[in-house]
Amino acid sequence: MPTSAAVKASAKLALKDKWPTALGIGSIIFSVYCLNIVIAQIVSTLLQPIVNEVWLTVIAVLSMLLFCQFFFAPLLYGALRWFWFGSLDNDVSVNEIFYYFSSLKLYLRALSLSVRIFTRVIGVLFICFLPALIVGAVASPTTYEILGSEMPYWATYVWMLFNVLAMFGIIMSFIMLLRYFAAPILMINDAGISPQEALHLSVIISKNANGKTFSFVMSFFAWGLLSLLYIPMIFTLPYFICSYAIYCKNLIANYNNMVAPPPPTFTGYNTF
After folding, report:
1. Would you say 138 and 178 are in contact if contact means Cβ atoms under 8 Å apart?
2. Separation between Cα atoms, residue 262 and residue 120, nearest integer Å
3. Backbone angles phi and psi of 16, in degrees to 5
């Protein structure tokens, strides 16, 4: 497996003559991302006189999740498709980003993968954060108010354990979710496999490479902080996506070499 620096260098080389189109795709993704936020704010404003703040937050988050599942994810997979085939030195039209909207079958294929990834994220987060949630409930005054009893003095010290378990949950959930890192690329690369098979294959090829994947993702930490300013995201998104596509290409090649290593190169007869 190449280093993160080598993957990034390959991504820059792949984008060398394609930056105008890549920036256009980054702008489209960024605009749709902003549209999602605007829609959530409009929904919140319209419902504010009707529901309380708790339900308002729930509805706003739910509207954003639905938008991501039904529109943003298929568009993102289409953009990833452009970068994937572009990184293989293919001449790909910018219309490729709307590939999964071109037919109902393709749209449902993208939607299926998106939903499956989302359910796995929720499941992993629940399992990893369950100990912290239990400890947090034990240390919360609300719990004892519901039970109609006084909060014991020792419960105030449990919050330290809650913080430790919460940090543990963040780390473990991140590591466990790396197993599905290559699933979108696997689905894009092979139209013959189902989204479920793409997830299964991602777990298999990532089995011995989670450390490398973790290092690769963390190498973009500074770029991620820069992207929090939103506007730089137009420029950083193409770099992120192209690097991701090239890393997954190497991840797949590494697995194939492990399963079926190339034959040794003939170097001549030993005359001694």
Report:
1. no
2. 35
3. -50, -50
Sign of CA dihedral 67, 71, 73, 75: negative
Picking from 9, 86, 17, the residue whose alpha carbon sits closest to that of residue 243 is 9
pLDDT over 80 (residue 146)? no
User: pTM for this one?
Assistant: 0.85
DSSP 124: H
Q: Exposed, middle or buried, 47 (CB in 10 Å: 0-12/13-18/19+)?
A: middle
Query: Is residue 149 within 8 Å of 115, Cβ to Cβ?
Result: no
Which class for 117: exposed (0-12), middle (13-18), buried (19 or more C-beta within 10 A)?
buried
The 8 Å CB, 24+ separation contacts for 192-196 are: 194/112, 195/109, 195/112, 195/113, 195/116, 196/112, 196/116
Q: What angle do CA 205, 210, 213 make, to 5 degrees?
A: 100
Would you report the helix, strand and coil content of the chain in percent, each value rounded to 5?
80, 0, 20
**Least confident span in 22-26, 94-98, 110-114, 150-154:** 150-154
**Which residues does 187 contact at the CB level (< 8 Å), separation at least 6?**
77, 109, 113, 193, 195, 198
Q: Give the tokens for residue 131.
A: 């100990």
- Give the dihedral of Cα atoms 154, 160, 165, 170; nearest 10 deg: 150
For residue 111, give the nearest of 81, 69, 67 by alpha carbon: 69
Instruction: Check residue 221 and give its pLDDT.
Output: 87
* Per-residue pLDDT band at 268 (split at 50, 70, 90): very low
Given the structure tokens 């009893």, which residue do they identify?
149
Provide the Cα torsion 4, 255, 241, 121; round to 10°.
-110
Largest CA distance in the chain: 91
